[in-house]
């Protein structure tokens, strides 16, 4: 009986070690479970598939909604480029942990969730787009008053112009990446003269 217990224990230990080794080699090339790119679940995707998947998502269009009007946009059109290398480094950072930390992290990821953001580069064209885009919500015309007694002219400027909050829009674009035809409603900032 003692030999049977020893044999069973040895077989159990060997099975656990084999499972860990097989898991290690299987998941070294795959995204860990519970990994999300924005709101998209990318668990178990192979490294060879991630690049094409990122490129596919980057081609999606989205809408920028300002009040009751939607403006269709593409990432490139707005001056945003995708750094696939940076995206892949973030997605696979747990895979590159030293042994056994990577295995422990893998088993923890089964019950958890991790959201990663794409590696975007917001170019000068993005900033130019934000600086050039204005929304005029003026409802009443400017008024000019003439005071003949003091010989003065008074202008009442009723212009109400807004621009998009750049940092808020960046965060919305990053967090909503991968959603097809999603509508993003950025915060507006009033331009004070």
Shape: rod-shaped
SSE class: alpha+beta
* N-end to C-end Cα span: 90 Å
Mean pLDDT: 87
Largest sheet: 3 strands, mixed
Helical segment count = 6
Helix fraction by DSSP (H/I, runs of at least 4): 25-40%
List how many beta strands DSSP finds. Answer: 13
Strand content of the residues, in percent?
15-25%
Low-confidence stretches: none
Order of helices and strands: HEEHEEEHHEEHEEEEHEE
What does this structure look like?
With 193 residues, the chain is an alpha+beta fold. The protein contains six helices and 13 strands. The protein has helices at 2-27, 47-58, 84-91, 101-109, 124-132, 166-175; strands spanning 35-37, 40-41, 61-66, 69-74, 80-82, 114-116, 120-122, 135-136, 143-147, 152-156, 161-164, 182-184, 188-190. The strands form five sheets. It has a three-stranded mixed beta sheet with strand order 2-1-6, with helices on one face. Strand 9 (143-147) and strand 10 form a beta hairpin. The radius of gyration is 28 Å and the shape is rod-shaped. The model has no long low-confidence stretch (mean pLDDT 87).
């Amino acid at each position: 009986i003692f030999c049977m217990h020893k044999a069973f224990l040895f077989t159990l230990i060997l099975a656990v070690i084999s499972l860990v080794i097989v898991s290690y080699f299987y998941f070294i090339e795959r995204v860990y479970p519970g990994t999300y790119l924005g709101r998209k679940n990318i668990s178990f995707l192979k490294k060879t598939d991630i690049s094409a998947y990122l490129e596919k998502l980057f081609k999606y269009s989205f809408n920028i909604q300002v009040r009751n009007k939607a403006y269709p946009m593409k990432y490139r059109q707005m001056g945003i480029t995708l750094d696939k290398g940076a995206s892949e480094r973030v997605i696979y950072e747990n895979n590159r942990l030293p042994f056994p930390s990577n295995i422990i992290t893998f088993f923890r990821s089964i019950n958890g969730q991790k959201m990663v953001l794409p590696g975007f580069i917001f170019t000068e064209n993005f900033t130019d787009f934000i600086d050039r885009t204005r929304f005029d919500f003026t409802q009443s015309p400017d008024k000019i008053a003439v005071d003949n007694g003091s010989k003065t002219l008074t202008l009442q400027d009723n212009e109400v112009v807004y621009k998009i909050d750049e940092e808020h829009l960046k965060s919305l674009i990053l967090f909503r990446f991968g959603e097809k035809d999603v509508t993003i409603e950025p915060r507006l900032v009033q331009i004070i003269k």
